[in-house]
Design a protein that fits this description.
With 256 residues, the chain is of the alpha/beta class. The chain has two domains: 156 residues, Rossmann fold; 82 residues, SIR2/SIRT2 'Small Domain'. Helix content is 37%, strand content 15%. α1 crosses α10, α6 packs parallel to α10 and α8 runs parallel beside α9. The radius of gyration is 19 Å and the shape is elongated.
Length: 256
């Protein structure tokens, strides 16, 4: 059992707005490799940072498209874990709940679709780095959900004829402005903030818990390793989300 301080449980029981930031750690529990660990088999000779850029796509769109297709197939076989389900249960109990993720695997959304009792009025998940299962036009930067099937790789945008690309944020690209603004607002207005399975070094997401701290929130870090946030967080729980979060929910419910 994880030692969960009573003041942490009290903060959760009385919270009016809970905000959560998740990173690669929670997906790793489902078998999704971290970005830099994703190179296996035929892809082991490639540096992922050299594939995930606009320049790489412009040079060799087929190569980049096929790498993401490989990653999509791998991620599609992964299943949400106990940490994902615990967060959805926490969302059901919270008066207001904001979930921000750095992950592109869509596992949080898959849990929501499996939970029938979740309120219909829940806020959309804020995907800071996009979603690997969505596609957009390389030229127009607009999402595309349907296109003419051909043998061409990548496929072409039905609107302008440009190549299509994964709807993810590549190196050198800005994060979606709306997603970023909503994340900052959540960090500023919440009274409890969870940082779960994130290294705390990738900006601007890494600044969110510190914004929450400056605005008086209780900040809880859930991570098996120490991070740059650890020294400042209100509470640090050493462990993976799939073990820690269900225990937090169980202990919180005991006080009701």
């Amino acid at each position: 059992m994880i030692d969960i301080p009573t003041p942490l449980l009290d903060a959760l029981r009385h919270a009016q707005h809970i905000a959560v930031l998740t990173g690669a750690g929670i997906s790793a529990e489902s078998g999704v490799p971290t970005f830099r660990d994703a190179q296996t088999g035929l892809w082991s000779k490639f540096n992922p940072q050299e594939l995930a850029t606009r320049e790489a796509f412009a040079r060799n769109p087929k190569l980049v498209w096929e790498w993401y297709a490989f990653r999509r197939e791998f991620i599609a076989r992964a299943e949400p874990n106990a940490g994902h389900y615990a967060l959805t249960e926490l969302e059901k109990r919270a008066e207001k709940f904001t979930l921000v993720t750095q992950n592109i695997d869509g596992l949080h959304e898959r849990v929501r679709q499996n939970v029938e009792t979740l309120r219909s009025s829940v806020s959309p998940i804020i995907e800071l780095h996009g979603n690997i299962f969505r596609t957009k036009c390389f030229r127009e930067d607009t999402r595309v959900s349907d296109w003419l099937a051909t043998d061409e790789i990548p496929p072409r945008c039905p609107r302008c004829g440009s190549y299509m690309r994964p709807d993810v944020v590549w190196f050198g690209e800005a994060l979606p402005r709306r997603a970023l603004d909503e994340s900052f607002r959540a960090a500023e207005s919440c009274d409890v903030f969870f940082s779960i399975g994130t290294s705390g070094v990738v900006e601007p997401a890494a600044s969110l818990p510190f914004i929450a701290l400056r605005n008086g929130a209780v900040v809880i870090e859930v991570n098996p390793e120490e991070t740059p946030l650890s020294a400042s967080a209100t509470f640090c729980l050493r462990g993976v989300a799939g073990i820690v979060m269900p225990q937090i929910l169980e202990r919180t419910a005991e006080g009701n």
